[in-house]
Write a structure and sequence with these properties.
This protein is α+β, with helices and mostly antiparallel strands. It has 20 helices and nine strands. The chain has a five-stranded antiparallel beta sheet with strand order 6-5-7-8-9. Strands 1-2 form a two-stranded antiparallel sheet. Strand 5 and strand 6 form a beta hairpin. Helix 5 packs antiparallel against helix 6 and helix 6 packs antiparallel against helix 7. The radius of gyration is 27 Å and the shape is globular. It starts with a strand and ends in a 5-residue tail after the last strand.
Length: 578
């Protein structure tokens, strides 16, 4: 064996050996010493597998998703849940305050920092929480990785999600998924150090530190549960998944299609059928790869491949429509299956240029890791039971089994509608001429181009989509009763009072309502269909032709024309001709 002259790697220091995991035997590590093996040697060089870059990326992506969530809360929650909003959250907080004797008792049952406010929940409480969350998450993006910052972000997000429990505006699986991901991110950071008599020792995070392999494995366990839950809910859900026809309709009927959805929907049906097979391949048949240990270089390659398959599949879904930050968030635990050797040299150099002297964590880290493993393991029992249907009940997706939502069940699109039905809100002053109220991104006008909005979450656009499921009246009365509140606010608008709900509407609707109060309002249901593929629509636009993205047919009146009673200001049916 001939060894080349050894040079010092920019990735390690003389004390790094204790911090690197001898987890695998794998291909040569980038930027390390090259060892030339003789032709007769069957041995592979022992390489030290690290996850510095993995940690670097995961924490910044968590910060990015937090930032998107808090920015959405800042712009929308006053209109959604403020005192002058559609479903005031302070009423819910006042109600649950009466159930508990102390704020601590209430916090343990409904975790939110607003328990510790002296007064009733105010709009500025939610706004300050969103603003502080946005600032802290922006700092995480640029490199402030600290367990105390991650803990603060988790508590702030939890506070908002909890007060929204009485509404349907935060009733989405990715809210719990963000909380679970954010909780794990706390422990991915360095633990507080008490070796120094400085305040910074309690919260600093060293880029050179090798992240806990236990926490990385818990991220992979999260990835596996998300994928398996999504795959099983399809196998057990709508018949079209078994018939492999769901994607004939999915891209047209998804909550908020993007322009690219007009490519996917018009793909050949044979390709769409194969795409269902791809879905099962990724979510069920290859997900086990991310859980593989690194005892051998072959297992390491499979684990890496599993992580790339999951992340790549999420990118494919991101391109096919607007699914808020769901798929961006789901990429994060998949990255935990990928080690530093898979990232480009420039990124490794960027991360390791920040390296400082690594301190040993002593006995604290093993104790914390073992505690986490036991806690997550015990909390996973009902989740696994739900996935395997051990209790004889049907699989429940997007469910939490404890108040702190540390381990949850996930899934999406177990049922797919074969037709798209849109509630169209209209207002009028005379009962004859009606103006349609547009939301920022939901389909409305036939010639309006679909928007790109993901990872931003337009919550009203998403919620109104559920009314499109039949029976429409049932979805309206049981899930989306805020629509009555929106009509009432529009009819009662005196142009002088607070109108935060207007910020939830499209700019064209805000401009129209700014002109003066309206007398009547109604909601009609239309069946929408994609008019043509993106390629043909683009050709028409280049040729200067009028472009219609959608066609529609009237189906039924969801809410007949209504007006306000003069005395009570409640909604009443209007005696007019439609």
């Amino acid at each position: 064996m001939v060894l080349r002259q050894r040079r010092k790697s920019p990735l390690t220091t003389s004390t790094d050996k204790d911090d690197l995991s001898h987890e695998d035997n794998c291909a040569s590590y980038p930027l390390r010493d090259v060892v030339d093996m003789s032709a007769n040697s069957n041995k592979r060089s022992q390489n030290l597998i690290t996850f510095h870059v993995t940690k670097f990326i995961i924490l910044r992506l968590v910060g990015f998703v937090y930032f998107i969530a808090f920015i959405g809360a800042w712009y929308q929650n006053r209109g959604l849940m403020g005192k002058d909003g559609l479903m005031p959250a302070h009423l819910y907080m006042d109600q649950i305050r009466q159930r508990y004797d102390t704020p601590i008792e209430g916090f343990l049952s409904h975790p939110t920092l607003f328990w510790f406010m002296d007064s009733s929940l105010e709009d500025w409480h939610m706004e300050y929480a969103a603003a502080l969350g946005a600032i802290l998450s922006a700092l995480v993006i640029i490199g402030l990785n600290s367990w105390i910052v991650m803990l603060a972000l988790w508590l702030l997000d939890f506070s908002i999600v909890t007060v929204a429990e009485a509404t349907q505006f935060y009733a989405y699986g990715w809210e719990s998924q963000l909380l679970e991901t954010g909780f794990l991110a706390i422990w991915l950071c360095d633990l507080p150090s008490f070796r120094h008599n400085t305040l910074t020792a309690l919260y600093r995070d060293t880029p050179a530190s090798q992240p806990s392999l236990t926490v990385l494995w818990l991220f992979r366990w999260l990835c596996a549960r998300i994928s398996i839950g999504a795959g099983l809910i399809k196998l057990r859900g709508a018949q079209c998944w078994q018939d492999k026809t769901c994607l004939y309709y999915h891209f047209e009927t998804q909550p908020i299609p993007s322009p690219l959805s007009f490519i996917f929907h018009f793909l050949p049906k044979s390709m769409l059928r194969r795409a269902v097979d791809l879905d099962y391949f990724v979510q069920l048949y290859t997900i086990w790869m991310v859980l593989l240990p690194g005892f051998h270089w072959s297992l390491t390659y499979l684990r890496r491949l599993g992580g790339f398959i999951q992340a790549g599949f999420m990118i494919n879904i991101i391109l096919s429509g607007n699914f808020a930050f769901l798929n961006h968030l789901t990429i994060i635990p998949a990255i935990a299956a990928v080690d530093d050797a898979c990232f480009p040299n420039w990124l490794q150099l960027l991360v390791h240029r920040k390296n400082g002297q690594r301190e040993k964590s002593g006995i604290v880290r093993p104790i914390v890791d073992l505690s986490l493993l036991i806690m997550i393991g015990s909390l996973s029992v009902p989740v696994v039971s739900n996935l395997l249907q051990l209790d004889g009940k049907h699989q429940v997706m997007n469910a939490s089994f404890s108040s702190f939502k540390l381990v949850n069940s996930y899934g999406a699109f177990g049922s797919v509608s074969t037709s798209r039905y849109e509630p169209i809100i209209s207002v009028s002053n005379d009962g004859n001429s009606w103006y349609e109220i547009e939301l920022p991104c939901k389909p409305g006008r036939l010639d309006r181009r679909p928007c790109f909005c993901a990872p931003y979450h337009y919550r009203l656009d998403w919620n109104i989509w559920f009314i499109g499921f039949k029976p429409h009246q049932s979805m309206l009365q049981q899930r989306e009763r805020w629509l009555f509140s929106l009509l009432q606010h529009m009819l009662a608008d005196d142009l002088q009072s607070e109108r935060p709900w207007r910020d939830l509407l499209d700019q064209s609707a805000r401009d129209y309502l700014q002109k003066g109060p309206v007398t009547y309002a109604k909601v009609d249901m239309y069946e929408y269909k994609m008019n043509d593929s993106l390629w043909n629509i683009t050709k028409q636009r280049i040729m200067g032709l009028n472009v219609h993205w959608w066609t529609r047919n009237f189906e039924e009146s969801l809410i007949p024309p209504v007006q306000l009673q003069s005395a009570s200001k409640n909604l009443m049916y209007a005696n007019i001709n439609k």
